[in-house]
Amino acid sequence: MLKHRGFPGRLPSSDxxxxxxxxxxxxxxxLIARERFxxxxxxxxKADEGFMAALWHHFGEEPFxxxxxxxxRLSWLFGREVVPAEDPFDPESYEALLRIxxxxxxxxxxxxxxxxxxxxxxxxxxWD
Length: 128
What we know:
- With 128 residues, the chain is mainly alpha-helical.
- The protein is built from 4 helices and 3 strands.
- Strands 1-3-2 form a 3-stranded antiparallel β-sheet.
């Protein structure tokens, strides 16, 4: 299982996990497209937004290997903003290739693409 070095392990100041530490001995958890209802909690929506921001910052438009990315968190975006990058696609493989569907992701999370990046260092001009 590929470990994505530099990828955030969780949403800051929360228990929303983005990565896993080790591979499951029984095999990778299957990726499924989870239904997102309008009445989801604000914290859940922020976790999705934070995960999308991390994916975009880390991988951009390039295909990426599932690796140690959390299946539960990926499943909230899978089939919409994150889609298979290979055919045939194995949803139970750590080596499966995924990619961001940029147009759908921009429509769902415009602040990730058009707002300030939460992962870039803020320039501090007060040092002059």
